[in-house]
Amino acid sequence: MFEEAQYFAPVAKREDGSVTVELASSHPGFADEVYRERRNAIAALALNYQLGDPVPHAEYTEEEHQVWALVSRELAVKHQRYAIREFLDAGERLGLPKDHIPQLQEVSDRLYPLTGFRYIPAAGLVPLREFYGVLADGYFHSTQYIRHHSVPFYTPEPDIIHEVIGHANTLASDRFAELYRLAGGAARRVESEGALQFVSKVFWFTLEFGVMREASELKAYGAGILSSYGEIEEFRGMDIRPLDLKAMGTTEYDITKYQDVLFEAMSFDQLEDVVGSFWATCDDDSIARIVAEG
């Protein structure tokens, strides 16, 4: 759940080279000048990054490391109850630190030997085609900032907790990593903005907010659910619908609220067969045919 227009705070680079992250007045860190200056500095690191360079080191305060430790500890308990086994096993393989915020380079160094994925820093919003396209090459764009320490279980925008606890644990799975790559290939293959939006929505309702039946229980595998302290407790009460490409690719969603419509895969095999096969082969024409189906 992220606030409207704050899904990513706008980032401005001035003529003098300075960088400003434009937080909304409702943002928990809006009145904290120290936090805002650090957000600006972290955004500047990403803006100056060149692909192939080591990810620049971001400085974090002790309060922020404590936020990571607290949220990591609480989410780990919830994951044991609500996450699918593939996610849990991948998290054990990755072995993220629990007592401090990992640097993105550290995440890459742990992840690359497992599935070939690496993290690259993002200052804020990344254009849709670029964000998804580089997945085909084994790169994942990630923010480096963390939520304001005053509200450790809430963020109005995706932060490093979402990007790493949600996505890096998932990317440590060979099966999930292949799905991410296929989504990236699909984003590069399609030409129209409509087809790209369709691919993006399928990603949203699966790898961000997907649920799956496992041993007769409804479990979560989407990074958006598994990184949200509140949403992970609520997803079983939502409108759960069967996995359906047309429905996922055409359903509108509101990022400012918990996702009230979710699509259930009956197994990981079904997710790969339906969604993986779609991403592996889709183009503008095939997507148009899906949308036109009665």
From TrEMBL:
Coiled coil: none annotated. PROSITE patterns: BH4_AAA_HYDROXYL_2. It holds the Pfam family Biopterin_H. The keyword Nucleotidyltransferase does not apply. This is Phenylalanine 4-monooxygenase. One of its GO terms (molecular function) is phenylalanine 4-monooxygenase activity. Keywords: Iron, Metal-binding, Monooxygenase, Oxidoreductase. Residues 1-294 form the Biopterin-dependent aromatic amino acid hydroxylase family profile domain. Its cofactor is Fe(2+). Its EC number is 1.14.16.1. Belongs to the biopterin-dependent aromatic amino acid hydroxylase family.
